């Protein structure tokens, strides 16, 4: 039974079954793709086609495959393996929080360069921390000063001793945890102030 087309208003919208041929936009890696056993509706009056959710999902999956990009589920899985929140992952990649969130739910598609960075984050998560450390303007002076004062620090500071091979006490572990939490809060506040 025909339904009313939401575009032209004609009562000629009918269900179709079979192979659906999808024409990719100009400049895509493929010109068209066929999807067997598909279901969609078509209007004979205006040519409008309304795809079923299942067919839309298949076309989206094919788009990622043709472009060689990680799917939204794969992007999310990489982030979850790294233990980062969406906001943390976005900052790691150097993109906006909302842009990254859209990639995970498939509302937009990451470009190839961002896809490469996500793949690198999956394979070498520590690499990004190293890159951030290299961006610190006085990093070399900080490292040199730390090394120069290391004998004094190790002898006087239980936290420094723990960082260089000795087992920390429960009190030292609590101090380390509090200090790391304070540093994280300071960083988040600084980034929030910079974004405002």
In short:
With 196 residues, the chain is an alpha+beta fold.
Describe the structure.
The chain is an alpha+beta fold. The chain has three domains: 13-67, no CATH class; 72-130, 434 Repressor (Amino-terminal Domain) (Orthogonal Bundle); 146-175, no CATH class. The protein is 59% helix and 13% strand. It contains nine helices and three strands, in the order βββααααααααα. It has helices at 53-67, 72-82, 86-93, 97-105, 112-123, 125-135, 139-156, 158-163, 170-195; strands spanning 13-23, 32-43, 49-51. It is elongated.
Q: Into which percent range does the helicity of residues fall?
A: 55-70%
Label the CATH architecture of the largest domain: Orthogonal Bundle
Identify the CATH homologous superfamily of the largest domain: lambda repressor-like DNA-binding domains
| Main sheet strand line-up | 1-2-3
Oligomer: single chain
Shape: elongated
Total separate domains: 3
Structure class: alpha+beta
Radius of gyration: 27 Å
